[in-house]
Structures are given as structure tokens and as C-alpha cells.
Design goal:
The complex is a heterodimer. By secondary structure, chain A is mainly α. Helices cover about 65% and strands about 10% of the residues of chain A. By secondary structure, chain B is an alpha/beta fold. Chain B contains 13 helices and eight strands. The radius of gyration of chain B is 17 Å and the shape is globular. Classes of the chains: A mainly alpha, B alpha/beta. At the A-B interface, helix 4 and helix 5 of A face helix 6 and helix 7 of B.
């Protein structure tokens, strides 16, 4: 037991920042999963596939969206491909808020998400659909 | 990078408010000011720029670019020789054939979504890539897919309106339920104004501002010369001293200063 504690302390001493970042990353992933579950509950659906796998983000869809989501979707349209940080910079809202809205738009089938290392990029998949 | 007012959509609620005439002459005014300008006809239901600019035919149309069958460079037509002592003027035309109009009116949501992507990409290919200073979209009136695509892709929406009551009401609705929802910078041009000399004072401007709640870019009186020209004249080139030319130049100046 004593050895394990020492080993843990050493690891913490060596890479505290990396460990904290790892924890944050995991929390973010957990948060995203929670958002998916909440969204599925809202729509009374059992799985993500049946919610919406194909929902083109055309201008009429943009028009009919709630204001808070439209703002986020418009920022993605402007930037083309962006992280939650970049969207937050455009909309001047908190990153966590944008992250939630972006993931909601992904769940609704309007945006696609791609992970590259620690960063998650959001974009409108205009070319591959139909 | 400040891009305010770089991409301009000229729109209106009703047809016949003077969008094309204003678009062409605003483009000409910017060109006269030494700018590199692109003017696009996005009114695919009733294309008119080709006729107005007396262009008989084109190898590639904006229809082709939006269909994804050619690059935007193929569509651009250099009409710089139409404007002397100025910058550069390019136009992109909409196909006027009945078949093309029918084809464009039968597009589905996915196509419109891709078309939006291609319009958004113009910021990169034309403004950043070719050093175009102003890209002007002449659009279809009302709530058409192509017009809303143009509005979403623009930095500034210029709404041409007349004193016709149904036009005033429709314009007010669009200001609230379209441009505002997209958080677009919007300005009004009051066109075909009768008795303009006595009504163009500060009181009149304040009244217009009060009705529409957005800035007034300019007031254009009803000129018989415009009717007589039958849609043939680039006023900035052919009638440089005409009041219409001066009004359009003032508008170009206002937009330039706000950018």
C-alpha cells in the first residue's frame, strides 16, 4: 500500500498538468454522453440513430431553429469547421455553453463532429449527403 | 480582418423595387472608386443581368457553379471595359433559358444546403483569393431559398423598398422575421420616391427610420430618365453627372466608410 501511495505521488509530481488535462478530457466526454442521453429522453427515443441521422442544415432549417441554436449554427456556417473555443469566440458566449449547443446540433443531425487528438471539430457535412 | 460590408446582398420583399438597377449601379459606383467588384445575378427565377448588361451568352453560369460542375473562375466575366478609369468589374450571370429556370426551381433542401456552402466559400475564393473588394448579390424578391442563401452568406443586406403599402408591410415583416434572426447588418434604400426634393429632409429620414427601425442608406427619387433608359444604362459610366449616379456614389461612400 505504502509503495502504491509513493508511486501515485511521484506520478502526480511528474505530470500533474497532464493528469488534470486527462481528467478534464474524460469529464468532457462524459458531459457529451450526458447531453446525448438528455436529448434522447427529450425526444422519447431509444437510440441516437432513430433520432436523426440526416437533417440538412439548409436556410429554412436555420430559420426555424430556436435563437440560441441558430447563433451557434450560423457561427459554424461562417467558420466552416471549428472547435467549441472558436465558436465561443465568435458568439461571445461561454465555451461550455457552445459545447453543449454544438453537441445538441450533432445529435439533431445538423452538424458532424470529428476528433483530432484532444480537439473536437464541428462542421456541416454538405457534400456527402444524398 | 474587418469584413463588414464586403459581401452585399440586395434584396426586397416585392418584385420591381429596383434591385437589379441598384445592384448594377452600386457595382459601377464601387468600380469607379477604383475597387475590384463582382456582381452576381442570383435571381434564378427571373434572371435579368445578362439582358441589362447586353451579354449574349456565357460559357458557364452561376447555375453551374452552384451545381458543383465548375469553379467560380469559369463563371466570372470581365466587364472592366464597360467602366472607364476605374477598378475592375466582373459579373456572374444566371442562365436565362426556360429549362435552366425550371431546373433551379425544382431543387431540394439538400441541394440548397450545398448551394449555401458554395456561396459561403466565395469569401475565401474571391475576397481572399482574388482580392475582390466587394461582392454584390442581386437576389430574387421575397422568401426564396436562393435569396435567403445569399442573405446568410452576406455581411450587409440592402433592402430596396418603395412606398407601396404592401411593400412597406412586407419589408417590415422581413426585417423582424428574416434579417434580424440571422443577425445581419441591414440598411434600407427607399426607391422611386415621389416629391423627393421636399421630402428628403431630416424629418423624412427620421420618419423612415421610425417605420423600419434600421439605418437608411439612401433615398432615390423617381427619375423619368431611368424609365426612359428602359434598363439599358449604367448611369455611373454613361451619365456621370446625373443625380442618380451621385446618390449611388454617396451610398458606395457610406458603405466604404463603414467597412
Amino acid at each position: 500500500m505504502g509503495n502504491i501511495t509513493v508511486a501515485k505521488q511521484e506520478t502526480l509530481g511528474k505530470k500533474p498538468l497532464q493528469i488534470l488535462e486527462k481528467i478534464r478530457e474524460n469529464l468532457e466526454k462524459l458531459n457529451e454522453k450526458m447531453e446525448v442521453m438528455i436529448e434522447l429522453q427529450k425526444h422519447d427515443k431509444k437510440d441516437l440513430q432513430s433520432l436523426s441521422s440526416e437533417a440538412p442544415l439548409d436556410v429554412m432549417t436555420l430559420l426555424s431553429m430556436p435563437d440560441h441554436l441558430r447563433k451557434t449554427a450560423m457561427a459554424v456556417c461562417r467558420l466552416g469547421r471549428a472547435t467549441a473555443d472558436e465558436i465561443a469566440e465568435q458568439t461571445r458566449r461561454a465555451r461550455a455553453v457552445e459545447s453543449a449547443y454544438l453537441n445538441q446540433l450533432v445529435i439533431m443531425g445538423h452538424l458532424k463532429k470529428e476528433r483530432k487528438g484532444r480537439k473536437a471539430y464541428f462542421y456541416v457535412d454538405r457534400e456527402s449527403q444524398g | 480582418m474587418n469584413v463588414v460590408g464586403k459581401i452585399i446582398a440586395v434584396h426586397s420583399y416585392k418584385g420591381g423595387t429596383g434591385k437589379t438597377l441598384l445592384s448594377v449601379n452600386l457595382a459601377a459606383a464601387f468600380t469607379k472608386r477604383g475597387k475590384k467588384v463582382c456582381l452576381f445575378d442570383l435571381d434564378f427565377r427571373a434572371p435579368s443581368l445578362a439582358t441589362l448588361l447586353k451579354v449574349e451568352k456565357a460559357d458557364h453560369w452561376l447555375n453551374d457553379y452552384l451545381n458543383g460542375t465548375c469553379e467560380i473562375e469559369k463563371v466570372l466575366m470581365d466587364l472592366t471595359d464597360r467602366i472607364h478609369n476605374g477598378g475592375k468589374l466582373f459579373v456572374g450571370l444566371a442562365n436565362q433559358s426556360t429549362e435552366a429556370i425550371r431546373d433551379m426551381s425544382a431543387k431540394d433542401r439538400k441541394w440548397e444546403m450545398r448551394a449555401l456552402g458554395r456561396l459561403l466559400a466565395l469569401r475565401n475564393s474571391l475576397l481572399d483569393g482574388k482580392g475582390i473588394d466587394y461582392l454584390i448579390f442581386d437576389t430574387s424578391p421575397g422568401l426564396q431559398y436562393s435569396s435567403i442563401n445569399a442573405i446568410v452568406s452576406s455581411d450587409l443586406v440592402i433592402v430596396a423598398t418603395t412606398s407601396d403599402r404592401s411593400d412597406v408591410d412586407g419589408t417590415k415583416r422581413m426585417l423582424k422575421e428574416l434579417y434580424e434572426l440571422f443577425e445581419k447588418k441591414t440598411e434600407i434604400i427607399l426607391n422611386k420616391v415621389l416629391e423627393a426634393p421636399t421630402r428628403s429632409g431630416k424629418d423624412f429620414q427620421a420618419k423612415v427610420k421610425d417605420i423600419y427601425q434600421v439605418p437608411l442608406l439612401g433615398i432615390v427619387p423617381c427619375f423619368c430618365d431611368i424609365l426612359k433608359a428602359e434598363g439599358n444604362t449604367i448611369f455611373a459610366e454613361e451619365k456621370p453627372d446625373h443625380p442618380f449616379t451621385r446618390i449611388l456614389d454617396e451610398m458606395a461612400n457610406t458603405i466604404e466608410k463603414s467597412a
